Amino acid sequence: MAIRRWRWTVRLLVGLILIPVLLWLVVVVVAPTGWARRQVVAAMEARSGRRVGLERLSVCPLGGIHLINLEIGSPQGRSDPWLKAADLRLDLSLLQIFRGRLHPRRLEADGVQLRILRRSDGTVELADLIKPIQEPARGSTAVRVADRVAFSVRRGQVTVIDEPTETRLQLEEVEGEGSSEGPLTLVDHLRGTLNGGPFRLAAQLDRTDAAMSLEAQFRAEDVAVDPGMKVLRYVVPILAGAAANLNGRLHADLYLQGRGASWNDLCQALVGQGVIALKSIDLQGAPLVAELSKLVDLANPRRLASIQSDFLIKDRRVTTDHFTMNLLRLPITMSGWTDLDGRIDYEMKVEGLTGRLPERARRVLGELNLDVGSLTTLTLRGTLNQMAVQVNGVPIHGSMLQESGPRRDDRERLRLLGRQLRDRLLR
Questions:
Q1: pLDDT tens digits for 332-359?
Q2: Could you tell me if residue 159 is left (phi over 0), alpha (psi between -120 and 50 degrees) or otherwise beta?
Q3: pTM of the model
Q4: What is d(CA 335, CA 309) in angstroms, rounded to the nearest whole number?
Q5: DSSP H or E run through 52
């Protein structure tokens, strides 16, 4: 008798366990996923203001939904999507979709392709999606819905296009985790590769209206330099105007922070510091090398250099007092600044310059009683698109130091330069 009661109890327990499972499987199999897909697409379009494409929606047996081949279009339309996701999992149930409560607590994205674009006029493609969020006024009865979302990314690809600086970066194999709650977004860690070299990023963004803030740290190692990295000119001005076949290896460490009442104020107030190193950088075709070649014998056809610089970012300027470059055993140190409008002003000290002057240059400068030793200090001024190497404010042209001797007007300029240098030394 006891055995029969035990068997009946076991069967009852098994039934209580299996019935909900079977009911859930029936829901998964016969669920109106077409209707759910339309509901999700409509909700995403309402929130983003963009056209949304979704190949299909499926219900996970263990809970949650999968969005397969999601695309969110640019402001111009779906034909040019800024976001693609091969598989996006949300911890939403069909019941939540039926009730119109599309507030997931976790988001897992696999196979993401994201484009971050700043146009030539300075506008950002995603500006309308990252607007400042206004906090409820004090005393307001409005209650904000708990909307903390934890997210993770795998097998991602991020394309960064900055038209004003002619920069294009392709981040591959991106993976990481973070969270978003109201105006606060945290990127706990993001890692991947940039041109074959590993990078890491951590960031925090607070979009609270009138009290916005940003903090970020970026590190990269052994990155191959390519023509799409023209933003490097702001930190390494000798790369300005360099040939398209520029190559080398990059190591960088950058920290940024800023606060402001608006995006524009925040960007204007950005401060930070960083270290950058370039190894085996080929400067063939760089304007600075061409300018130095007028003064110095650079017979080696390959202009391989190593560069190291510490820099500060403040008041819309990138400033350095510790820039060193070794070009064909010609040590060059620089101090000065590049502003965000592309203007540059640096002072260069070139060790051993007098020993590298061609014989004809020595002879011409000697005839003019010019203190050759003072040529160790040069200046680099102009813009990132047009620069000039000067001695005490006077540009040195190759025609001044030709074998046949300088032209009359060049000779007068050199005499003036000689007097300026002597006056400077006698002060």
A1: 888 999 999 999 999 888 765 555 555 5
A2: beta
A3: 0.77
A4: 10
A5: strand 52-59
